[in-house]
Amino acid sequence: MKNFFIGLQIFLIVALNIQCTKPPKPSCSGVIPASGPLGTTLNVAITGSNTCFIKGVSVASFSCAGITVNSTEVNSPTQTVANITIAPDAPVGACDVIVKTLGHTVTCPAAFNITLNFTCDVDTTKTGYELAGAYDDCLVWNAQKTMTHTESKDIDIRATNKPLLEFSGSYAMLNAAENWIQPFYTIVPENMSASSSAPPSINGVVLAKFKAKDSVDDAFGFCNRMPQGICAEVQQEVYDTVLNNVLSNDERDKYLSQGKQLSFIPDDDLPPLSTTTNPVNNGSAWLDDDPATKVTRVDNQYYYEPWSLYVTLDDPAISDENLKGVRYCKLLSHQAILNWMLEKSFEENPVLITPSKPICDAPSSLDSGNGSCLFYSPVYGNNYFCADYTGTGFTPENTKDKCETNTAYENEVYSTLPCSARTEEISAYIPGYQSLTGICVVHCKETNEFILNIYNEDPETKCGGFVFFYPGELDK
Description:
Elements: H1 2-19, E1 27-32, E2 35-37, E3 41-49, E4 59-62, E5 67-76, E6 79-86, E7 93-101, E8 104-115, H2 128-148, E9 156-157, E10 160-161, H3 164-168, E11 173-175, E12 180-182, E13 184-191, E14 201-211, H4 213-220, H5 231-246, H6 249-258, E15 261-264, E16 295-298, E17 301-304, E18 308-311, E19 326-332, H7 334-342, E20 372-377, E21 383-388, H8 396-405, E22 410-415, H9 423-429, E23 438-442, E24 450-454, E25 467-469
Parallel strand pairs: 2-8, 9-12, 10-13, 15-17
Antiparallel strand pairs: 1-3, 3-6, 4-7, 5-6, 7-8, 11-12, 13-14, 14-19, 16-17, 18-19, 20-21, 20-22, 21-24, 23-24, 23-25
Helix pairs in contact: 2-5, 2-7, 5-7
């Protein structure tokens, strides 16, 4: 056996000498590409000088933690290609690239950099609804940059899709020291089961929470004269992308010549913001407004109002820092626009978006068994409330968490009991207690529904735009 390994070594050395015509003084000539973002898999070509890479023998490695070499493929004695995967949590920075061939080692010092993933790439080999869906995946990422005019800035945009229940309690965030902005969004699906050509379900409306330009400028130290971007501008970009990049030439020609056209009504972009013009609404009821109610029609011209909420960074009326310097938008998705251009715009009375909000004639329940939260809120009318969490998405665990972590709540007290069983505690907690005087229903009949019980005078003025009931209307 020993003689076998000696013979194998001699054979490989001979093979090495046959392939190499230059003196064995190997060095690194270059690495292409010289960087790769977190969470990606890519090929890295390593080129050497005076090297003798051998297929099946040469092995590439990287000095950085978090890089896995999946394979090493030798193209020639002077070039090898490493297929690597960079872990999403790999340390960012430079690392050495190394290729070993028997006793020969070629090192490319600090030749490859792990970078943050600041891009949102769309696979343009896809077509139709798949391509529109791919654009939807990047919608919020792109919109955060365009509305704050930071397209040329090297900032990590951490656009995060959340279920509706989590989205409703989320706040757009940023951290200039760590170089990131995190908008949140959720997608409301559109049922297409009646369509003969569309998938059974498509993306309908994208609800998104962005950091506004003034908050980004203040945190990152930017200074330019560009205005705060508006939701209608983003919506127009979505429309143009579908028209020019998703539709085929024939589909585009047919839509433009025969289909009912769609335009977008701008939202206010600069203070003073008006509560009477569409669609800025400085209030917590933004989430409850049904996008289907923002569709209007004049003859064969249709309009959509991308319902917006904008709070300036210096708004003196807002005490919660999480709600300052934000822009929220309700946007038609690329898939919804595509369906309009392919099908709905040719119908006699098309429905752009199916109404998603049921009529709120009562909350789905008055008590849920999930517990309740007693609190004061400067956001909800500067008043005291006891909240019952009645939506099907709530559990005792996440109800307790919502009570104790919601930044809109102050002096909160959670209990496993419903509000109706905490009368003595509530009367001692609320100044001017008058028994139950009103009930506000938030996110009525949705999975994140909860009710705010009011116990003082003028209850309707404390409801903040949510659906209001007097106790007698609900037999309570």
